[in-house]
Design brief:
With 493 residues, this protein is mostly helical. It contains 20 helices and two strands. Strand 1 (66-67) and strand 2 form a beta hairpin.
Length: 493
Amino acid sequence: MEAQTVANALKAASPLAIMSGGAFLLLLLEVFLKANWARGSVTAITLLIALGTSILVSGHFGQNQVVFSGTLYQDPFSWFFMVFLIMGTLLTLLMMVGRLGDQKIESPSEFYSLLLMSTTGAALFASAAELITLFLALEIMSMALYCLCGSAVTVRGSTESALKYFLLGSFSSAFLLYGIALIYGLTGTTSIPEIAVALQTMGDKPAVGFAIGMTLVGLIFKIGAVPFHFWAPDVYQGAPTSVTAYMSCVIKASAVAVAMRVLWVGFGASEATWSGVIWIVALLTMVVGNVIAVRQRNVKRMLAYSSIAHGGYLAVGFLARADQFGGGSAILFYLVAYTLMTLGAFAVLLLVSSSDPDSPHADDITRFHGLSKTNPGLAAAMAVFLLSLAGIPPGMAGLLGKFYIFSAAIKGEFVGLAIVGVLASAISCYYYLKVIVAMYFLEPTENTPSKISLALPIRGLITVCVIGVVLFGVFPDRIYTRAMVVMYSFLGA
């Protein structure tokens, strides 16, 4: 029986092993294959095998099940994020294939290897059932991500973004590690389920609140929420656009998954301690992200502040306990919708941006002036993505995502926070519609690109994202029902 349990655990962890093996395989092939070979295809095949394996072994994921001596969860929640993160990376890869040279990335094998390692760390991060494992997974993900941000070594902005992210990321990791040490000192364990049991008997001691606060710093930083958001605009703007898209979707999703697990399971008994902090973080993040985005002319920087604001909407869901108000399923649906509309927007931005990333007008809004006349298909797709981010039809997925989040908040009696969220979302309409006005109501300038030729991978990405944004908005039941099933198991109901 024990051998069978180990075998099932290995099967469930096999997607992680496949992605890690693919990362090392890329480096080995680069040594022995001197010619220009299909690095992107090898990466895609690795991710597809990992995705297929995840689906095949889904039967081995049981409710509240932990494996490898209690270090990893093997439940439907971790399976959902395993599949979600791999699919998000696959979609981002479509943006990267054939476009690395345009982004001044000169070492594609190393780049794709780092991408696989970062995704492996993100999936491990979302599956961690023990805080030391969680921290190690965070470092695996982050170290690869720092290098990805600086992968365009000849571009000044890329190097600066990598350095800023490394320094500030290390600072936040130190807070997280200190919080983990304090929690271990208070409870005598680093296991998330055992921490939950220990905190039930400890009450609201000041030391518990301090330990939880230190842990939250690291999680809030990765989500990009206020007050630990200040790194995001500079890093997002300086990093290659495809890496920025990957960070804003895949990395953010993994951090949200960990926050849900740690807050609702590990610190569930101390909700009174952290709920007030999350309330303030959610409110400030929604307001600050949207208000500052209004002033941005650089579209990439504008989308960075937009990503901060959407982190605030997700934080609202943390307060609407999943077992009572449906906050969990609302968060999962919102992540799916947000990933589609954000990846699509960054894909269009990548095509429209200047070929010189260091140019002061590389991502300026003037590059979108009259885009509907020179590239009507791209302009229409960008309009759908921006309308969805704003929560305006036909971008119904974004609208429903916000509806589910704010409905859960109202059920949890956070009516004031829901009202602030609606008002903040109304503010966002200004800067999203500003880009649409530039595309459809202004004449092309010398910065507006002429007819853009779309390669098949990025054309496929944009098409998938447009269809997904519209389809999941019209027929949300399939995703939302699946999210409810996942959360039902997550809560041990």
